[in-house]
Amino acid sequence: AALQIRKKVLGEEHADVATCYNNVGNVLQEQGKLDEAMEKYEAALQIFKKVDECANVAMCYNSMGNVLSTQGKLNEAMEMHEAALQIRKKVLGEEHADVARSYNNMGVVLEEQGQPDEAMEKFEAALLINRKVYGEEHVDVAMCYNNMGCVLKEQGKLDAAMEKYDAALQIKKKVLGEEHADVASCYNNMGNVLKAQSRHGEAMEKYEAALQIKKKVFGADSADYSIALLRAADSACATKSSLDDSHFFTELNRIVAVDAQLLDSVAPSELAFGLRSHVGLLRLAARFGQRASDTTALEQWRANVQRLIDNAHPVVRALGLQELANVRDDGRFARATACESECLLAALRASASPCALREA
After folding, report:
1. Cβ partners under 8 Å of residue 350, min gap 6
2. pLDDT at residue 348 in the model
């Protein structure tokens, strides 16, 4: 409505109309409607170019780069971020926060392209600017530390990665508070490093911390809590501790009971991650089920999984058939149709696509 009013009052090529296009694009991007978002950003870009709004031209290039990165079009994304960077450096100066954002976005793309050294250079450049602009205790500084930690982890430099994640954690706790979703992400990333170091007990502590925060922030029926739960449960399995009366089995059982509804609530942009959550939940539930001595709870779990299989998305149904076969000696539960198997393969390929959020 605001867009139509401004077009009528101000004309088609006014900066305020371009701003509306950009804002609509931001909403569409959040909804996972990436092609539609790109159309709005392009419309905004053309108007800003005509009215000589250089900083806003850079903003459009940056937004378009983020969409292209999410779509896996990494070379095109890098071109957009490079264009944004050059304009911002010229218009705003070398040490502006928006210049740091361009460096950071380029670093994310370079990491996805398998160029960790080049990515680290961009993150370091962003860090230097952000520290000059904001000081040490700012979320953008923490973001740089986090991104550097992601690169170092992928390079196998686990101690160095842990240092960066811890630096990010301390800043976020101080600035955002102890129970913020970004704090949970830091705990998760630290848990991943500890898990890679086979320090499963310590990893479980970090995953548990993330789990409790996500439960408070997002609720116990959310996809975020579900994913945090499977990470903590996976570490519990790795510790080889007694799982017979573990609260993880109870929680896994409860989540499987509502998982069909959970998948339906996942936004399109998060669908691949939601499917990956299903993969982990069902597999872990099977592992817990195999070791659980509480036969009543085990039968309840089997019934819940069967209900999910009967009503779920074909991908989940195919996976459920496989996982249920792990704890039930009945051949008919082990068979999935060729179509469902193909859906499963497609979902697993999709779950490997790059994620915009820097939670490793």
Report:
1. 271, 272, 275
2. 39
Q: What percent of the chain has pLDDT over 90?
A: 44
Instruction: Please give, one letter per residue, the 3-state secondary structure of the chain.
Output: CHHHHHHHHHCCCCHHHHHHHHHHHHHHHHCCCHHHHHHHHHHHHHHHHHCCCHHHHHHHHHHHHHHHHHCCCHHHHHHHHHHHHHHHHHHHCCCCHHHHHHHHHHHHHHHHCCCHHHHHHHHHHHHHHHHHHHCCCCHHHHHHHHHHHHHHHHCCCHHHHHHHHHHHHHHHHHHHCCCCHHHHHHHHHHHHHHHHCCCHHHHHHHHHHHHHHHHHHHCCCCHHHHHHHHHHHHHHHHCCCCCCCCHHHHHHHHHHHHHHHHHHCCCHHHHHHHHHHHHHHHHHHHHHHHHCCCHHHHHHHHHHHHHHHHHCCHHHHHHHHHHHHCCCCCHHHHCCCHHHHHHHHHHHHHHCCCCCCCCC
Distance CA 105, CA 12 (A): 31
pLDDT at 269 (0 to 100):
41
The residues near 40 (Cβ < 8 Å, ≥ 6 apart) are: 21, 22, 24, 25, 28
Region of poorest pLDDT, from 99-113, 146-160, 182-196, 236-250: 236-250
Which token pair is 321?
């058939």
Rounded Cα–Cα distance for residues 230 and 223 (Å): 11
More confident residue, 237 or 326: 237
- Whether pLDDT at 6 is above 70: no
